[in-house]
């Protein structure tokens, strides 16, 4: 079967929309543009090659190719260069760098309208990723007239999420109702969510079932329909029904941090501190960049009189540069909501950046075929929270960085919370803490024992 060859515009759109191209076609295009550049020194071929390599997920090689292009392309014809650089930074979670690159791309004369509106969409995504919610709202207001009508519903939904994060619920409801009135992919889910925020639960369960029926079982969309249903039950105060759904969801694929955070919220409603702590801890192991999760861990620490609450709180604030979270932590502080951005319905929310070891492995299998110099692209240094692993808490480390010697620390922590439950809660915990502890330790490939010492 003949391979399909893509123009640079095709590749740019594939990158912009996160499309999955056929692997054989992508490999053929990579080889084709590599040969084109070698034989003719054509800069468009070099940029197309960079796009192919990004689509393959080899970010190290893409960076090297873009460095070479940056050295050769004049400033008057560098729109594609800066746009691809922006996408590369965004895919590796360096969102501030990406915003700067997109800003430079907008200043170029060779930007076509087709690709230019993608700049606005990508910039908006980055602003939300670094929690610049007010700035994202203002940016959308300024640029929405340049974005095609069929692209607007998801962006309006994202703005609704921004208003939610800023606790401007009335404004958020207006956005969700606006999308709900449009015939689009996410209209029904926005209509449902807007009514949940309003407290208008009439006929919502039927609408959720209608939404769920549109998707195949065991797909990300079907999981999120079930998650939406659990949020409906939580809003109605039917915690038992929500708990049943979430217990099933935590064994499914994708977005575990949201499912586990809701589970932690329910455990706290039952005054079960040990299982609430473990649910949020496990949520952090799936995505350590959500400050609300660390804030909630700090709240649980403070409620049982542990000094480690300050360290967890500081970690949360370090991830919250725009001060969306409460400024202070008190003994009577309440949990904050870990909200889902419904504009990304059906997608795994956590950004996936290739690990260094994986990059080295890819480079060994596919050695560089082009001799490339290493000038640095001048972009401001990204914020630390997206560049470096977060340091450990004094009492219990982030699960991602566990070592064997920390098992006893985890066991000690769990024992403490279990004892607190026995002393302060009359009703026994509804779920055995050992099960969740074993799940965490198993995930980290560490040995665990069901019968721990207290």
From TrEMBL:
Q: Please give the name of this protein.
A: Uncharacterized protein
Which keywords does the record carry? Repeat, TPR repeat
List, alphabetically, the SUPFAM superfamilies matched: TPR-like (SSF48452)
């Amino acid at each position: 079967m003949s391979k399909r060859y893509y123009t640079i515009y095709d590749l740019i759109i594939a990158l912009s929309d996160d499309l999955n191209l056929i692997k054989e076609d992508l490999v053929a295009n990579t080889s084709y543009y590599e040969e084109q550049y070698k034989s003719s020194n054509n800069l468009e071929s070099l940029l197309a090659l960079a796009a192919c390599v990004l689509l393959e997920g080899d970010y190290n090689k893409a960076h090297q190719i873009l460095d070479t292009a940056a050295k050769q392309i004049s400033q008057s014809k560098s729109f594609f260069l800066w746009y691809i650089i922006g996408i590369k930074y965004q895919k590796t979670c360096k969102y501030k760098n990406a915003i700067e690159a997109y800003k430079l791309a907008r200043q170029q004369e060779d930007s076509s309208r087709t690709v230019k509106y993608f700049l606005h969409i990508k910039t908006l995504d980055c602003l939300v990723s670094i929690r610049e919610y007010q700035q994202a709202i203002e940016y959308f207001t300024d640029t929405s007239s340049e974005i095609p009508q069929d692209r607007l519903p998801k962006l309006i939904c994202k703005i609704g999420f921004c208003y939610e994060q800023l606790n401007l619920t009335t404004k958020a409801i207006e956005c969700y109702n606006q999308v709900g009135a449009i015939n689009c992919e996410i209209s029904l889910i926005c209509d449902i969510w807007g009514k949940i925020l309003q407290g208008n639960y009439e006929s919502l369960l039927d609408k959720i079932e209608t939404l769920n029926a549109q998707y195949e079982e065991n797909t990300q969309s079907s999981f999120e329909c079930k998650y939406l249903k659990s949020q409906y039950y939580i809003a109605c105060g039917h915690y038992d029904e929500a708990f049943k759904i979430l217990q099933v969801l935590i064994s499914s694929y994708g977005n575990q941090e949201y499912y586990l955070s809701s589970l932690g919220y329910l455990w706290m409603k039952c005054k079960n501190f040990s299982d609430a702590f473990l649910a949020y801890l496990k949520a952090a192991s799936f995505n350590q960049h959500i400050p609300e999760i660390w804030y909630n861990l700090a709240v649980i620490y403070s409620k049982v009189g542990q000094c480690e609450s300050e360290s967890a709180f500081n970690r949360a604030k370090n991830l919250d540069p725009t001060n969306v979270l409460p400024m202070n932590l008190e003994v009577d502080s309440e949990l904050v909501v870990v909200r889902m951005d419904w504009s990304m319905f059906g997608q795994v929310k956590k950004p996936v950046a290739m690990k260094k070891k994986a990059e080295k492995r890819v480079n060994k299998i596919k050695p560089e075929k082009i001799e490339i110099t290493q000038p640095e692209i001048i972009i401001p240094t990204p914020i630390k929270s997206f560049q470096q692993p977060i340091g450990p808490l004094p009492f219990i480390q982030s699960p991602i960085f566990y070592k064997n010697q920390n098992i006893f620390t985890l066991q000690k922590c769990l024992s403490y919370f279990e004892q607190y439950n026995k002393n302060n809660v009359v009703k026994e915990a509804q779920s055995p803490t050992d099960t969740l502890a074993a799940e965490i330790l198993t995930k980290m490939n560490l040995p665990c024992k069901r019968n721990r010492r207290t």
